[in-house]
Design brief:
117 residues; mainly beta; 11 strands; 0% helix
Length: 117
């Protein structure tokens, strides 16, 4: 059974930083493209960042320059370093994964990130 479990969410003040972690089990992320998505209340889920097997990355325009996705295949984990956080970053953040040429069909349960004074 493939599972993705996020951790590291919480409450942070504007301008602060937070590091999210995603631990995969049941499959090696070495054969997966990995990504982070988020969903704020009343809004659709949106792309935050992806990092494919080959190493290239893609970021949503609203987080580019502030967030960094990384992966550690030896630990079977993916991370999202979030800096200069803004209130509009408040959302549930989801770890996602897919095989090459497949859909983003593996999802974690989500972790809440709240940016507020």
């Amino acid at each position: 059974q493939v599972q993705l479990v996020e951790s590291g969410g919480g409450l942070v003040q504007p301008g602060g930083s937070l590091r999210l972690s995603c631990t995969a089990s049941g499959i090696s992320i070495s054969i997966l493209d990995m990504g982070w998505y988020r969903q704020a209340p009343g809004k659709q889920r949106e792309l935050v960042a992806t990092r494919i097997i080959g190493g290239s990355t893609n970021y949503g325009v609203s987080v580019k320059g502030r967030f960094t996705i990384s992966r550690d295949n030896t630990k079977n984990m993916v991370f999202l370093q979030m800096n200069s956080l803004k209130p509009e970053d408040t959302a549930v953040y989801y770890c996602s994964a897919k095989r090459i040429l497949a859909n983003w069909n593996y999802w974690g349960q989500g972790t809440q990130v709240t940016v507020s004074s």
